[in-house]
Amino acid sequence: MSKLLVIFGVTGQQGGSIAETVLKDAQLNKEYSIRGTTRDPSKPKAQELVQKGVDMVMADVEDAVSLRKAFEGAHTVFANTVTIYDGHTYEHETKHGRALADAAAAVGVPFCIYSTLPNAGKISGGKLKNMGHFDGKEETEQYIRTLHLRSAFIAPGSFMSNFYPSMSPHPAGDGTYTFASFIRPDTQMPFIDTVADTGKWVAAILADIPKFEGKVLCCSTALYTFQGIADAMSRASQKTVVYKQLPEEVWRQMLPPPMRDHIAEMLYFFPGVWILRRGYGSQGSVGS
Predict the structure, then answer these.
(1) Is 165 exposed, middle or buried (0-12, 13-18, 19+ CB in 10 A)?
(2) How far apart are CA 7 and CA 19, in angstroms?
(3) Sheet strand arrangement including 158-159
């Protein structure tokens, strides 16, 4: 009899990648059946997964009863939280993360895989004060470790999908296209193709749970510089794409106010501290 894998938020980028990877893997597809959660199972993306053999159920992170019902009978739950930039990012992360963990523990789920991030506030000695989207996830990770719940964790790099639409190149008026930030063009950052690659790391955990129990797998497709990204976009589009380094205050005005400080501090954090502390220094990195 196959083991039940419940993927919370299966219609999202991370959850969808995991479902597709397991469905396409000959061994994992035999070993696991999939139940996916979404707030509306009638939507097209959910129905596409139903056609592929995924059991779709309704669950909402704000509804503890729906979470417990969705997790019942699971051997493994994959859970992640969605970042909300509304001035209460940290509070949302910890509230929602704990709700997912508590629901899994309440119904006796044996194993949980959680999508975490480093605690930038602690690592920076308190210098980075607007990283609730990171700190809240890491504090949830530590909370999960206190429960009677075996666990493993993935820590994704920056999503490549962020380049569409928020960081996508714009026409410069001279036939070229530009995208901008305030960091140097030769600065390396860990990026992940969320849809194509997230499932690969989770599949590794599912294939050998004892090996990865208690560990954090740091997930990046590769390290990229912003100049390298511009070059890759130019090659792919056959258009000239230029990266422009702007003064930080000018760049900040290009972002919606609720997310400015979060994104700016993330860009400070990514290149140095995160790569050194979490092990994103090579393709397909695995941290500890």
Answers:
(1) exposed
(2) 8
(3) 158-159, 188-192, 222-225
Place of tokens 């502390």: 277
E strand intervals along the chain: 3-7, 32-38, 55-58, 76-79, 111-115, 150-156, 158-159, 170-171, 177-181, 188-192, 216-219, 222-225, 241-245
CA distance 217 to 115: 10
Residue pLDDT tens, the chain, 288 long = 899 999 999 999 999 999 999 999 999 999 999 999 999 999 999 999 999 999 999 999 999 999 999 999 999 999 999 999 999 999 999 999 999 999 999 999 999 999 999 999 998 899 999 999 999 999 999 999 999 999 999 999 999 998 876 678 999 999 999 999 999 999 999 999 999 999 999 999 999 999 999 999 999 999 999 999 999 999 999 999 999 999 999 999 988 999 999 999 999 887 765 545 555 544 433 333
Rounded Cα distance, 236 and 19, in Å: 28
Q: pTM score, two decimals? A: 0.92
**Helical packing angle, 132-146 and 89-106, nearest 10°:** 20
Are 190 and 270 contacting, i.e. CB atoms less than 8 angstroms apart? yes
